[in-house]
Design brief:
TIM Barrel, 8-stranded mixed β-sheet, 12 helices, 8 strands, about 35% helix
Length: about 325
């Protein structure tokens, strides 16, 4: 039994799947950035990207099972040549579509069409902006990223995002700490971005950094790995368990393989197949197959249950 399972049992809490609500599709690892906190280890030099046969099979599954939400992520999901197919297939099936956008992709040559495309298909934009101050963004995402992000947000505001169309921002701590209270930080973001840049948005999601990939490497190099894992474990909050995204979200990799969450995907914790030597793929299952199933966990799961909790939609508890 891993330490997270022991903690659950110690609190008399059981973690099982509820009804499927969100299909989260990771189209690949290629990104125009290489952020220090990235649990995907995405970068411009990555080549792992979803091919057409997989994209078509995922689209067919969406059409058949019609999940309430299709959440498209990466890497930079817009770099996928099948991005528009997934968006339009999901919208045609009646699903709400979310795009996990790093903002700076809107500033890249050849991607000026994105704001109008998002607006046309009513895509919910969930945009990464780890701080409202240039110097803090530069520490995590590189020099010049903040200015590009502000330009992108203005473009999105210009087509109706932050007003009639949903625009949500994402905060990650710069280092090995827990996020501050979400509501208070959201108020700060709204005040500063409106005052200094004329930018409006709907909500801020605070997300705890996962001890995975590039961030994990940094922790080990700085000698902070043990202290961070101890912080996460000691901050376990049983009130967050009911709202964990793994209970209602299914994560799909760029080859079509399925996981309980995007973090498990990065650790290769694929849902098992009918025998121990194989894993499952999206087209092997239906939503009914998942309801009530056990969820694979490990020590990294403490990041989602620490403090106010953390999910793709931000904090889980007040």
């Amino acid at each position: 039994m891993n330490p997270f399972e022991s903690k659950l049992r110690g609190h008399g809490v059981e973690l099982r799947r509820a009804a499927l609500h969100t299909l989260q599709v990771n189209v690949g690892r290629k990104c125009n950035q290489a952020c220090r906190h990235c649990h995907v280890d995405a970068a411009p030099w990555r080549t792992e990207m979803m091919g057409e046969p997989v994209a078509r099979r995922i689209g067919a599954w969406i059409q058949q099972h019609r999940p309430a939400v299709v959440d498209i992520t990466g890497g930079a999901p817009e770099l996928s040549e099948h991005f528009r197919h997934l968006v339009e297939t999901a919208r045609g099936a009646g699903s709400r579509v979310m795009d996990r956008c790093n903002l700076t992709i809107l500033d890249e040559p050849g991607f000026a069409w994105l704001p109008e495309y998002f607006a046309e298909h009513e895509v919910e934009v969930v945009a990464s902006l780890p701080c409202y101050l240039d110097e803090n963004v530069a520490k995590q995402r590189g020099a010049g990223v903040f200015a590009k992000s502000i330009r992108a947000l203005r473009k999105l505001n210009g087509v109706g995002y932050g007003r009639r169309l949903p625009l949500n921002l994402v905060f990650n701590p710069v280092g090995p700490t827990l996020p501050p209270p979400q509501a208070e930080l959201e108020a700060d973001y709204k005040e500063v971005l409106a005052r200094d840049h004329g930018i409006v948005f709907h909500r801020l999601f605070t997300i705890t950094n996962q001890p995975i990939a590039r961030f994990a490497q940094d922790l080990r190099q700085q000698g902070k790995w043990d202290a961070y894992l101890e912080l996460l474990a000691n901050s376990f909050n049983p009130a967050t368990v009911e709202g964990l995204m793994c209970r209602s979200t299914l994560s799909v990799g760029w080859r079509g393989e399925v996981y309980d969450c995007d973090f498990n995907q990065m650790l290769g914790m694929q849902l098992p197949g009918h025998d121990s030597a194989s894993g499952r793929f999206l087209w092997d299952i239906t939503p009914a197959d998942l309801d009530g199933a056990t969820i694979q966990t490990a020590a990294h799961c403490f990041a989602c249950t620490a403090g106010c909790g953390s999910s793709c939609a931000g904090a889980l508890a007040g």
